[in-house]
């Protein structure tokens, strides 16, 4: 892989390169959308309602941040788009399952997602539960296929890291800690931990899986894993800020849910200014990890700043 001197970084990158990032994200989102569409074809059989709910939960919306990360990191190692798009689709399916279940009355009880009725409101609770279950298993099925990568070792690595990031030691465990913490004042370290699991692990994996596909050296893989960890933490802080400052129209979901639920957030603990400073610190840490990749990683640098500047 060719390495060049890294481009200068500053928070002005969003203003300077925002259009380029937006174009690249839109282009990759279309590729990911097409991959999901092909992997979840509609059917007229007895499972038609289930497939419809799965397609509803995954198609036609969202930033595709996790899928974009997977494809963009993989491109650093010249991984064919046909392989990285499948991996990106699997990440987006698992993320969609988590959102479908999070919105259920037994969890966050939210009627809106991406400006549309939540899956359980569009269909029904039982169908939403089954759709989430099926999306989770489909995500692993995709990674197990030789179409994703010819090497069984690579596929096992993808699956193992994915399972760790999404299970009790990752996303699901973080959700449990979050639920247990409602109505209690959690210390900052515990809030960091729960969000590192609930949100951060899947974003970290999204960066690392591109390195796994590309069979990166241990040092480069570690750097990309650290990059993903830092932007995952920054992403959650930005979410906490948006939950306090943005409207439901901007978010595409109910605003102010965290405060109403009595959850401990970065904003509650640090204030908006303190939370913004912490997000900026994490972003700078993430960008520093990209130094060996030079200008090839410019869109990943832009993405790191976009994560804390976005309005939804």
TrEMBL record:
Named from the GO MF annotations, one term is:
prenyltransferase activity
The coenzyme or cofactor needed here is:
Mg(2+)
Q: Which domain of life is it from?
A: Bacteria
* Keyword Magnesium assigned: yes
One GO BP:
terpenoid biosynthetic process
Which keywords annotate this record? Isoprene biosynthesis, Magnesium, Metal-binding, Transferase
The record, for PROSITE patterns, names: POLYPRENYL_SYNTHASE_1, POLYPRENYL_SYNTHASE_2
Quote a single Gene Ontology cellular component term. Answer: cytoplasm
Q: Which InterPro entries match?
A: Isoprenoid_synthase_dom_sf (IPR008949), Polyprenyl_synt (IPR000092), Polyprenyl_synt_CS (IPR033749), Prenyl_diphosphate_synthase (IPR053378)
Q: Which Pfam families does the UniProt entry name for this protein?
A: polyprenyl_synt
Which PANTHER family did the record assign? FARNESYL DIPHOSPHATE SYNTHASE
Belongs to which family?
Belongs to the FPP/GGPP synthase family.
This protein's name? Polyprenyl synthetase family protein
Source organism of the structure: Acetobacter garciniae
Print the organism lineage: Bacteria, Pseudomonadati, Pseudomonadota, Alphaproteobacteria, Acetobacterales
């Amino acid at each position: 892989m060719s390495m060049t001197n890294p481009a200068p970084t500053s928070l002005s990158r969003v203003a300077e390169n925002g259009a380029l990032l937006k174009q690249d994200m839109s282009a990759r989102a279309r590729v990911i959308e097409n991959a999901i569409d092909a992997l979840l074809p509609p059917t007229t059989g007895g499972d038609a309602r289930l497939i419809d709910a799965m397609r509803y939960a995954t198609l036609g919306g969202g930033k595709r941040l996790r899928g974009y990360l997977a494809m963009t990191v993989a491109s650093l190692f010249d991984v064919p788009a046909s392989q990285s798009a499948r991996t990106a689709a699997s990440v987006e399916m698992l993320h969609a399952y988590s959102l479908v279940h999070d919105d259920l009355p037994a969890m966050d009880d939210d009627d809106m997602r991406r400006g549309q009725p939540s899956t359980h409101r569009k269909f029904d609770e039982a169908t939403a539960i089954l759709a989430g279950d099926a999306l989770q298993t489909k995500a692993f099925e995709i990674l197990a296929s030789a179409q994703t990568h010819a090497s069984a070792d690579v596929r096992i690595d993808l699956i193992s890291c994915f399972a760790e990031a999404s299970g009790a030691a990752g996303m699901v465990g973080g959700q449990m800690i979050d639920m247990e913490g409602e109505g209690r004042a959690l210390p900052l370290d515990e809030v960091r931990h729960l969000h590192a699991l609930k949100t951060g692990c899947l974003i970290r994996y999204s960066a690392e899986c591109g390195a796994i596909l590309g069979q990166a050296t241990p040092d480069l893989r570690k750097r990309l894993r650290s990059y993903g960890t830092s932007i995952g933490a920054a992403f959650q802080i930005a979410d906490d800020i948006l939950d306090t400052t943005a409207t439901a129209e901007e978010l595409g979901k109910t605003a102010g849910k965290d405060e109403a639920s009595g959850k401990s957030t970065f904003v509650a603990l640090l204030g908006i200014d303190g939370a913004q400073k912490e997000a900026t610190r994490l972003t700078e840490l993430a960008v520093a990890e990209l130094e060996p990749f030079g200008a090839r990683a410019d869109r990943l640098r832009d993405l790191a700043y976009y994560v804390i500047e976005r309005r939804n």
